[in-house]
Amino acid sequence: MLIRTQQWLIAAATTVAVAAIAWAWTESSAGFRLELERSRLATRIWTAGTAHLRLHTSTFLDNASVQAQVDWRESHAELARLLATDLLDDAPGAATLVELRNDHAVLSPVFDTLVEYRVAETASWVFDPVNQAHQRELTRRIVALTERIAEGSGTLMAQSQQRLATLQHRQETLMLGLILALAFAIGLNFTIVRHQILKPARRLEQGARAIEAGHYGHRIGLHRANELGTLAREFDHMAESLSTTMAALRQQGAQLALANRELESFSYSVSHDLRSPLRGIEGWTRALLEDCGERLDASGHEYLARVRGECARMNLLIADLLQLARVTRDELQQEWIDLPALAGQVAARALEACRGRDIHFDIQPGIKAWGDRRLLEIALTNLFDNACKFSARELQARVAFGRCVAENPATQQREEAFFVRDNGAGFDMAHAQRLFGAFQRMHSEKEFPGTGIGLAIVHRIVLRHGGHIWADAERGRGACFYFTLPPPPGPAPAAVRSAGGHG
């Protein structure tokens, strides 16, 4: 059963139990208040019937004075008023009340008759045996009726007190039942929370810690038909998938390590085995030119120049390929970098390589970045060299480097990015998707010589940092390359090590 279903059932059962006990308590309280009023009335009847009426009856029998008659009649009237109250009519023991009312109704005529005989005796001043006999009989009846009234009122009061005690015990029982019901609900809920939630949650926590520690074979193994059981099964499924993924990653890591070793071997082969024949070709052409140059005509000299040019181009291509391999393989050494200082060094080298041209570099100051200095220097070198190369036809070339907010096509969001902008030849944005591929060119070799690998190197460096790179250009209006770098691990220090310290 689901935990939320159990909680709903416990809440519903507790609510019903509390509502039933509360209803019974309300009914019992109403009955208790009613019985309390009845008990008070029964006590007053007992007081009037036992204490007052018996006392005044005894006083009258001892001294039949007018005041004794008045006191007796007042006691009798008080008892009559109390017995006339209908509060006890529908109470248990109503038969006792009926007998009290009957005895009370008979008592008054008997008392009046006794008073008449007493008055007659006083008026005649003659002893009358018949009168005395009647008085004795009436006195006996009055005493008997008074005792019966006293006994009946006592019974009535005892019955009421018994009912009051019963109701009080019932209320105490209901209160105890309410406490037990709430305690049972709390205990049951605690048991469910402990066994259905806390223990499974602890097992899930232990499983998460085991996975975090690298024990991908750990399983929860919690087979319960509730939410935590479902979560445990999903956790085990995730652990199984993670274990499979990690095994695949380890296999891929081994394959990647093998590929890196093969790449290193290939790089060594390229660096030595391929360059060695090129050096031989270049050496033999130089020897041919020196030894037989006089016997070669203009076409021969041109052919030798082309061979040497192709050798130089091949050397440059090999150098770019090796650089592309290195930026892919080398481990990142990230630090805070003063980019304007680094860009200034790269720009100085670009100006030296393009001596005689009018090139203006505009480098925005105060830019700090977190990255690998050597790789970012390679990226800026390629971007600046491209900017200088493709602006060669401009009388005054302008190259700008800085930071701005631009829309990233990969995320469709505006974010901070670094840029390198030139006023050169630009390119058609319709072919921008192949811009960063190796050996991809936007212009012909005759227009702008090059290997077509520079932007691929920049792209690889930016990706290795976890950033994005894109371009915006217009043919004949220049190009602008944007790239982002990942956020730094913290705020930049007050004094970032100057890039000039590495040059």
From TrEMBL:
Instruction: Mention any one GO cellular component term assigned to this protein in its UniProt record.
Output: plasma membrane
User: Which Pfam families does the protein's record reference?
Assistant: HAMP, HATPase_c, HisKA
E.C. no: 2.7.13.3
Location in or out of the cell: Cell inner membrane
Official protein name in the record: histidine kinase
> What lineage does the source organism belong to?
Bacteria, Pseudomonadati, Pseudomonadota, Betaproteobacteria, Rhodocyclales
What the entry lists under Gene3D superfamilies is as follows: 1.10.287.130, 6.10.340.10, Histidine kinase-like ATPase, C-terminal domain
Q: Which SMART domains match?
A: HAMP, HATPase_c, HisKA
Keyword annotations from UniProtKB, A to Z: Kinase, Phosphoprotein, Transferase
